[in-house]
Amino acid sequence: MTMTTAELLKEIQKAIVYDKTIDEWCKDKFDSYPTCFLGIDEQNPPVPDDYPVIAIVGVTQNRSDSNRELSWDIDLGVGIISEAVTEEEGSKTYEGFLLAEDLREQAENAIFGIKPARITTTGEAGTISYHPLYVSYSTINVKLKRGSQESLP
């Protein structure tokens, strides 16, 4: 099976948009559904009503005429807004930090369900805190085998 980069990115976006687990979790935690962006306009970033946000923000493709495998690294970011802070016994927890991590992992799980691709998480995953905005990001590696008669798309 040959897939172009654009087809793969649209497939990833679709997997996230139609993931019931993500929808239910976001509705429970934020009383709204997530917005999935394919690309981000840095001059006009998402507005508060767009949050929670799941964004495909970058892609790198590894191509070779002699390799029977197509490979992409997809940069994924999620953003949430949360004012919640809990304090107990000498600790202070900004709940948005943890919620962003949970949403990132759920977005990765939705991508892992794409078939027939072989998908792994590579690179770094992390969260950045700009209270009340929290951003978590990761790199997802996607590999597809080409048939022996197929040329590069």
Keywords:
alpha+beta, 7 strands, 153 residues, 3 helices, 27% helix, two-stranded antiparallel sheet
Widest β-sheet, arrangement of strands: 1-2-3-7-6
Give the helix level as a range of percent: 25-40%
Q: Give the radius of gyration.
A: 17 Å
Strand residue percentage = 35-45%
**What is the typical, i.e. mean, pLDDT?**
88
How does the helix and strand content classify structurally? alpha+beta
Q: Write the H/E string, N to C.
A: HHEEEEEHEE
What is the end-to-end distance?
Answer: 10 Å
Low-confidence stretches: none
Shape: elongated
Description of the molecule:
- The protein is an alpha+beta fold.
- 27% of the residues lie in helices and 40% in strands.
- Strands 1-2-3-7-6 form a 5-stranded mixed beta sheet.
- Helix 2 (20-30) packs antiparallel against helix 3.
- The relative contact order is 0.22.
